[in-house]
Design brief:
Blueprint (H helix, E strand, L loop, with lengths): L2 H5 L28 E4 L9 H13 L9 E3 L27 H9 L3 E6 L18 H11 L3 E5 L7 H17 L5 E5 L8 H4 L8 E3 L29 H8 L9 E3 L9 H16 L6 H11 L3 H10 L5 H14 L3 E3 L8 H7 L2 H7 L8 E2 L6 E5 L5 E6 L6 E6 L11 E5 L5 E4 L2 E7 L4 E8 L6
Parallel strand pairs: 1-2, 1-8, 2-3, 3-4, 4-5, 5-6, 6-7
Antiparallel strand pairs: 9-10, 10-11, 11-16, 12-15, 13-14, 13-16
Length: 461
Amino acid sequence: MRRLLCALGVTAAVSGCSYPTDVTITSPPPVLSPPMGWNSWNSGIEVDDRSIRETIDAMVSSGMRDAGYTYVNLDAGWAAPERNSTGELVADPERFPLGLKPLVDYAHERGLKFGLYSSPFNQTCGQGTGTAGLGHETSDAATFAAWGIDFLKYDWCSADADHDEQVEVFGAMGSALRKTGRHIVYSINPNSSGDTAAGRRFDWSGIADVVRTSGDLVPLWRSALPQNRGADPFAAGMFSGVPDQFADAVTAVPRPAYRGDPDMLVVGVTWGEFFLNHREQLRRNLQTQSLTADQRALVEPLLNMSQQTAQRLAAAQPSLTIDEQRSHFSLWALLGAPLLAGNDLRTMSPTTLSILTNRDVIAVDQDALMAQVRQVSGDGRIWAKPLADSSVAVALFNSSDTPADMATTAAEVGLPPSTCYTSHDLWTGHTANTTGGIVAESVAPHAVRLLRIQESNACSG
């Protein structure tokens, strides 16, 4: 999501960078299941000690921890603008006056894990170039390990997109993390570059545990924003909605050595709060960043936008409906994607909580077989994913704007021949028996019927 800030014009040139040399890349152990947790970016909440402690408390009290959400990940904005006198990363002293270690301990004491965001370049993202990791891999990894960090999101954040360079730079940080002796899940985003498809075009085995396979997801279905004259960063088509993001992610070649990441969840996040909160977050971040006159000329028109204009843009885009949010969560589960919630956990509605903690859907995401979802129909409406207990997860997905009837068969979704099957609807909880036909009538626009189907003897008699 840092490309949002890039679109707002936060760009900088890194000078004096030296690339790591003689890097020996040590391969990571396989990630057994997609990570689940929360990331601070999409909500746009304050990234400070108080807000994150409240979020940790909410993860526990809401039942999200018990549903499997264990990582509390701080995205861009946690670090001080510059390194300390010895070249080490430090937390922003105003946001985290006690430093990060007490906060990490607070999470660990409550059965949670803690993650951070960093970048080798920080040229086009939401954190300043003074914290760029290139050339600091060993010291940064040691710092993360000393703090007790469990997850690192490493964002490319540079227009340069040479694949060999990406392998070298991403590999250097991965190897440094593993040499600390602490298990830190390593998530990379090679797409925040001039090659927005790098994550799914190349094989990143041996480099990272999690790899972004698509661009940036924002909380919308498809853009309905008005076209504006000039360099409007919120003009239609700049960001991907749920179905387009899924379509990109599903084309990634499956790699057993790492998990593909179609970006963080936007369940429970409205477009209005996303836009307005990030505009304000950009304003706050720039108060501590050193920008050139040219860079300020890029961002000041947006920051000087009238509140009326900002409110108009916030209201112009419909937020995701409940059906669309359920479809989003279902599709990510079929992908076996990391489930990193992005909403404000402190104020989420019962409906949002019920979507995020649907254990039947989570089980599809976390299934031990880690099979790839495949398209059954040629129109992108019916998808199937084999599961470890020999059942099959089947999604009848209506991406169109009108209600639709959909049908398939047990044979078409990959089940063995049988005289009876049991079908369990993972959203309604309804269970039915069938002799082989799988039918969904009048599926609402943008909605999904997510079923778990298996052989049964319940049809006899």
